[in-house]
Amino acid sequence: MQANRHTIILMQTSQNRATRTFMDYESISQAMDGICALYERKLKELNPAIRDLSYDIADLYNFIDGLADMSALVYFSLSLSLCSTCSYDHSIQAYLPYDRQWIKQRTFQHLKKLAH
């Protein structure tokens, strides 16, 4: 899957349905940055006296797992040529759903890529 796909992150911070929200990004990479930034803001909120905060991937995973819900919708477009004699193509455009495990894998890959 290409990294430049419009991505919507759906999340719910607590069991209260009123905490449902979404964030949308132009790419999967930007979405992963957004999730990391969300966690970093939470860390600063919880530790206002500490200037330089650091965390590891396990901390980020715990944050993601601690949310009531988090999932992603990633835009997908596919052109199909159903027959060799047809003069037209069919295309499918949709948002594919991904769970929090996928988000954790993608944040890890994203942070690993940034570190190199």
Chart the SSEs and their pairings.
Elements: E1 7-12, E2 20-25, H1 28-46, H2 57-66, E3 69-80, E4 90-98, H3 100-115
Antiparallel strand pairs: 1-2, 1-3, 3-4
Family: Belongs to the E(R) family.
Function: May have a role in the cell cycle.
Keywords: Cell cycle
Structure overview:
The protein has 116 residues and is α+β, with helices and mostly antiparallel strands. The protein has a single domain, classed as 2-Layer Sandwich (ERH-like fold). Helices cover 39% and strands 28% of the residues. It has three helices and four strands; from the N terminus they run ββααββα. It has helices at 28-46, 57-66, 100-115, and strands at residues 7-12, 20-25, 69-80, 90-98. A hairpin with a 7-residue loop joins β1 (7-12) and β2 (20-25). It is elongated, with a radius of gyration of 18 Å. The mean pLDDT is 91. Keywords: Cell cycle. Belongs to the E(R) family. InterPro entries: EHR_sf, ERH. It comes from Senna tora.
Shape: elongated
Number of helices: 3
Instruction: State the name of the first-level CATH class.
Output: Alpha Beta
**CATH superfamily placement:** Enhancer of rudimentary
Portion of residues in helices?
25-40%
Low-confidence regions: none
At CATH's second level, what is the architecture? 2-Layer Sandwich
* CATH fold description: ERH-like fold
SSE string: EEHHEEH
Report, as a whole number of angstroms, the end-to-end distance.
21 Å
Radius of gyration, CA atoms, in whole angstroms: 18 Å
Mean pLDDT: 91
Per DSSP, what share of the residues sits in E-state strands of 2 or more residues? 25-35%
Largest sheet descriptor: 4 strands, antiparallel
- Widest beta sheet: strand line-up: 2-1-3-4
Structural class: alpha+beta
Number of strands: 4
Protein name: Enhancer of rudimentary homolog
Organism: Senna tora
Family: Belongs to the E(R) family.
Function: May have a role in the cell cycle.
